[in-house]
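Input/output pair, single chain:
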Amino acid sequence: MNPNNSIIIPFFNAAETLEGCLTALSDQIDSDTEILCVDDGSTEDYSKIKSQFPNVKWLRQDNRGPAAARNFGVRSSKGQFILFTDSDCIPSSTWVKDMTECLKPPSISGVKGAYKTRQREITARFVQIEYEEKYQYMKGQIYIDFIDTYSAGYKREVFDTDFFDEGFTNASVEDQEFSFRLCKKGHLFKFCPNAFVFHKHASSPLKYSRKKFKNGFWKTRILKKMGAQWKGDSNTPLTQKTQMLASPLLFIEFIGSFWPMAHLIFLAGFFVFLISNLPLLRISWKHDFKIFPFVLFFTFLRSVCLDLGLIMGFLTSKTIKGNAGE
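Output:
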């Protein structure tokens, strides 16, 4: 009999993390669930890991990115529920059960889980607080339109007509574009916060900045393709969009000596920026007090990098090369 669930994990040079991901899943796997690991053209040797997990179906393709790897996995799978996670994620002990339970209602086409982290670096802990604000925002919505594939599930019939856009050649926003496209066709998605995976977030301000710039850069592909997404999505609180608009005003102070109004514009921008940070400040106070003093620094950094990424994305057609394991 064919399995009911298929778990697809794309990876590229992920020898350090893939074993942990598969170990976490191994206790949850039975005859009703299959795992497909799709190697996106790695240069590392996985023979030892493969010998540890003989029940995993191992696939390989030339380096074409995670979107193509996931599509390859879907076409090679047999389950009615298609689950996705990443090679650097450690699913919780009930992740498969939680994901499939959320997918069972006939009206639901897809579900999204959540991130957690065990890291202690300040940057990584801020990233987790950042996600907590997004999750709080999503919990207030009956349906969502935003699914990222670190913890995702879809019914097989979704792939009868649609696949991930392989024009995204790196791990960026290809999963967002896919869920937005499906929502426009009338599919309904749910947020399932109990279906979480542990993840290693960006551990330094530099790594965080690079990630946000890249996200902003690739976001322009979605905005050009789906103009309606300018209105926002179920994952991005209004506070973040407000900060992205207010942050440029803070640079006006640098020309204050040449323009008398610059100081007022700076103060107005700072006031709006501060007010928009209140929800995140409250979350950090409640969940991780030590992050509280760093919130304004990181939200400003996030806003600037996303803004710069968007600007660069609209000004150039140059692509950013990446791989499924990033």
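The chain is about 45% helix and 15% strand. The longest helix spans residues 205-225.
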